[in-house]
Amino acid sequence: MVSKRTAQIKDVLERLYARYNHRDLIKPDPMQFLYRYSAPSDMEIAALLAAMLAYGRVLHIQKSLTDLLGRMGDSPFEFVRNFDNDKRGKLKSFKHRFTAGDDISDLLELLRGVLGKFGGLEEFFVQGYNPHDKNIIPALSKFCDSLLDMHVKNTNGCIRKGLSYLLVRPAGGSACKRLNLFLRWMVRDDDVDTGLWKSIDKAKLIVPIDVHMSRLCRILEFYSRKTVSLSAAVEITESFAKIEPADPVKYDFALSRIGILESCTGRRRTECGDCELFTMCLHR
Question: Cβ distance 182 to 45 under 8 Å?
Fold first, then answer.
């Protein structure tokens, strides 16, 4: 039986979903760059790169992705499939905070091998996916480990720090926000998320957690930790699963709009009265 509080939270989340979960509200989210392309193969590559660089200020992320994808031409997929030293040279001067052009090139070299062997990222990812696993974390771990192992073989054991940051391993305790964001974009299917990947159950996804999302989840009383970690992300996802077990990441985009579009900082403002979470904030 669903508790009264769970029913109340679900009602709030459904109103948020109805209000914000629309294609025309995606900007300035980095996933806007996926929809510049129509071919699924291009969207998949653009999605991974957009998620990888989804850290820092929103305007900086947009500027960096415009720059990076511009250097890659009309088809990110073809750029990666035919990646060589000339294309590495095109990315040499690229910079997004502490991600350098060589870090992106190292990643694209690995993806070139993946595309050559598997044809696409989904086909590669599902090699480590077991539908009987509790969640997507084991598959995500295998995805990162497999790519980094390939890199080690190619470089005689040397892993560039920037590549390790892009392919952060869940085993280290990171919430893996950017990779979980990529998986949400690929697996879920609605007006916002693409649903390009058909082989993975959306019930296995983990909520992409950053400091803004964690603050909103504390308001919902989904967890009380001060740090953003993988265990926190799992705990939060399990709380969402009590409300929407078949789709625990359903409300992620809508909730994140409160911070991105409404500039919520957690501090009381006159605009707070228009927010669906206002009554919950009042009781904290």
Answer: no
Q: Which of 172, 169, 176, 177 is nearest to 147 (CA)?
A: 169
Phi and psi dihedrals of 3, rounded to 5? -70, 165
Please name the residue that has the structure tokens 């669906």.
276
Q: Write the CB contacts of 232 (distance below 8 Å, at least 6 apart in sequence).
A: 175, 209, 214, 223, 225
Long-range contacts (CB closer than 8 Å, 24 or more residues apart) made by 123-129 = 125/197, 125/200, 126/199, 126/200, 129/199, 129/200
CA-closest candidate to residue 104, choices 82, 120, 116, 87: 87
What is the distance between the alpha carbons of residues 196 and 57, in angstroms, rounded to a whole number?
Answer: 27
Question: Can you give the residue ranges of every domain in the chain?
Answer: 4-282
Residue at 61: amino acid letter = I
Total count of residues recorded for the chain: 284
d(CA 28, CA 8): 30
DSSP string over 14-49:
HHHHHHH--GGG-TTSGGGGGGG--SHHHHHHHHHH
Q: What angle do CA 191, 244, 120 make, to 5 degrees?
A: 50
SS3 (DSSP) at 74? coil
Look at residue 259 and tell me whether its pLDDT is greater than 70: no
Place of tokens 């009265």: 273
Six token digits for residue 43: 């969207």
Cβ(184)–Cβ(208) under 8 Å?
A: yes
Q: Buried b vs exposed e over 48-66: b needs ≥16 C-beta within 10 Å?
A: bbbbbbbbeeeeebbebbe
Instruction: Summarize pLDDT for 35-94 with one digit per residue, the tens.
Output: 999 999 999 999 999 999 999 999 999 999 999 999 999 999 999 999 999 999 999 999
